[in-house]
């Protein structure tokens, strides 16, 4: 059987076409793999930025108390002797605690996304326990509980329950630094 020149040419073009499809498929696969890596990297970077911003909010909350002597006195009195505060002072103190809780809530959400290290969250839980287990902190939490996400309000309640189990709840913070 004799092969004609145009049949060889057809066969060569089919082989070239098949090679082109394989190369094209490999290029698409490599591009998709690269895109997936970039998206994952970008998502992680976004989480890190969000976590830093959430942590910064708590630092700012502390800073405002430290910089303002009257606010510091209100904060200390609200934690240690809430009942002695005037109605207006109780309102300001409760809003201060709400600001703290909202900042910690943002950190908790970042923890759920994996952007916050569990060790950092453990320290936040201790701070939250110290504040919210005081009489003023507890009353402020209950006053604004509905404004927090139900999941985070449950986390705060669990912290309070743990404090209650160790008989460390609803205390006045007298003589604490």
Walk me through this protein's architecture:
The chain has 6 helices and no strands. It is an all-alpha fold and 177 residues long. The longest helix has 63 residues, at 5-67. It has a domain at 47-165.
List the helices and strands and how they pair.
Blueprint (H helix, E strand, L loop, with lengths): L4 H63 L1 H12 L6 H27 L4 H15 L2 H10 L5 H16 L12
Helix pairs in contact: 1-2, 1-3, 3-4, 3-5, 4-6
Cα end-to-end separation = 101 Å
Biggest beta sheet summary = none
Number of helices: 6
What is the H-and-E element order? Answer: HHHHHH
Strand tally is 0
Q: Whole-number radius of gyration?
A: 30 Å
| Weakly predicted, low-confidence segments | 172-177
What is the 3D form? rod-shaped
Percent of residues in beta strands?
under 5%
The average pLDDT is 84
Percent of residues in helices comes to: over 70%
What structural class do you assign from the helix and strand content?
Answer: mainly alpha
Summarize the structure in short.
The chain has 177 residues and is mainly alpha-helical.
Q: What are its keywords?
A:
single chain, 177 residues, mainly alpha
């Amino acid at each position: 059987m004799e092969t004609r020149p145009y049949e060889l040419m057809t066969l060569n073009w089919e082989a070239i076409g098949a090679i082109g499809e394989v190369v094209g498929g490999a290029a698409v696969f490599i591009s998709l793999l690269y895109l997936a890596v970039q998206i994952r990297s970008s998502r992680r970077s976004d989480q890190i930025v969000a976590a830093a911003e959430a942590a910064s909010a708590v630092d700012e909350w502390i800073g405002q108390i430290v910089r303002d002597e009257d606010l510091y006195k209100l904060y200390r009195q609200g934690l240690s002797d809430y009942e002695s505060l005037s109605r207006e002072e109780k309102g300001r103190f409760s809003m201060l605690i709400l600001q703290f809780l909202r900042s910690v809530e943002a950190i908790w959400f970042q923890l759920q996304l994996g952007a916050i290290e569990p060790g950092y969250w453990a320290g936040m839980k201790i701070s939250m326990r110290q504040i919210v287990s005081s009489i003023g902190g507890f009353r402020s939490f209950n006053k604004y509980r509905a404004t927090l996400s139900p999941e985070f309000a449950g986390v705060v309640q669990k912290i309070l329950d743990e404090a209650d189990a160790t008989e460390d709840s609803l205390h006045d913070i007298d003589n604490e630094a």
